[in-house]
Design a protein that fits this description.
Helices cover 49% and strands 12% of the residues. The strands form two sheets. A three-stranded parallel β-sheet has the order 1-2-3, with helices on one face. It has a three-stranded antiparallel β-sheet with strand order 4-5-6, with helices on one face. The protein is of the alpha/beta class. It is built from twelve helices and six strands. It folds into three domains: 123 residues, 3-Layer(aba) Sandwich (Rossmann fold); 73 residues, no CATH class; 73 residues, Uridine Diphospho-n-acetylenolpyruvylglucosamine Reductase, domain 3, CATH 3.30.465.
């Protein structure tokens, strides 16, 4: 089983030191096992958010698995209070204490959920490309396979009850929308969505490369460029200069294009930033 799964993973070459985020769930435990079996020098990182009674004990599950597969183990705390946007806040807190470049156990099922979640949010190419495959060596695997691997290896993953809570939109996509789509299509749609995400990512990367030739502060150059390239150049420029986690939405970019075309003098783009035009130059102001 392990060799067949590894053939569809994207781990670095044997002997490479890698950090793995391991919550104790089946996907992350499979990540730890497969990274070790691939010959990598693995450090398993566990982060406790303190959201559930006994959550600190979950670190023991990860520590035992790390010992069994000869991996190093590091535990960190990043407490989050229950409330709105908990998933996003926990993710931000988690990555705040994890090392740069840490590998995660996202699977093809996570990819499909993410694409659908981004679609209903109104995302552009970045969102429809889904999860960046960099640092996600298990994207070619299914969640059922990581669960089967844990069972075959005698591992008992941590069960997170929040994964069943319909208050989280991702859970409704996982437990309601995806099964409905599979039923309507009369086939498993996860590979189809994942393949679409990969194709979209390729288009996005090509546009990125072509858009790099455009000076996004040159209003005339932006106004005269093909609109998809102008949009991409502006999105990347604004995200880079404002140090934002995500590029501005489509509506904000349309307003910036209006400024570049001299249809408006300036526009708000969110986050306390404004794009202005002066002497044929676009600029960013707080």
């Amino acid at each position: 089983m392990i060799s067949e799964l590894l053939a569809r993973c994207t781990f670095p070459s044997a002997g490479t030191a890698v950090d793995c985020a391991v919550s104790g769930g089946p996907d992350s435990l499979a990540l730890l096992v497969l990274a070790s079996e691939a010959g990598c020098k693995v450090t398993a990182w566990h982060v406790d958010h303190g959201l559930r009674p006994g959550s600190a004990e979950e670190a023991d599950v990860v520590a035992e698995a790390a010992t069994r597969w000869g991996a190093a183990f590091e535990a960190r705390s990043a407490h989050c209070e229950p409330g709105p946007n908990l998933e996003a806040r926990a993710r931000q807190a988690r990555y705040g204490v994890l090392p740069a470049g840490v590998l995660t156990g996202h699977t093809a099922d996570d990819q499909a959920e993410t694409v659908l979640l981004n679609l209903i949010r109104g995302a552009g190419l970045d969102g429809l490309a889904g999860i960046d495959p960099a640092r996600r060596p298990l994207l070619g695997l299914r969640r059922s396979e990581t669960q089967a691997l844990c069972q075959a290896q005698g591992l008992e993953p941590v069960q997170d009850p929040s994964n069943l809570d319909p208050a989280h939109r991702r859970n409704r996509i996982r437990h309601e929308l995806l099964p409905l789509l599979c039923d309507i299509a009369d086939r498993d749609v996860v590979p189809i969505i994942a393949r679409g995400a990969a194709l979209t990512g390729g288009v996005r990367d090509l546009l990125d490369e072509l858009a790099a030739a455009i000076d996004p502060t040159d209003a005339k150059a932006v106004a005269e460029a093909p609109e998809p390239l102008a949009q991409m150049a502006l999105r990347r420029w604004i995200q880079r200069e404002t140090n934002a986690d995500h590029p501005p939405d489509a509506a904000a970019i349309e307003r910036v294009l209006a400024v570049a075309r001299n249809e408006a003098r300036s526009t708000e783009i969110g986050g306390g930033w404004r794009v202005t035009r002066s002497s044929q130059r676009l600029g960013l102001q707080r």
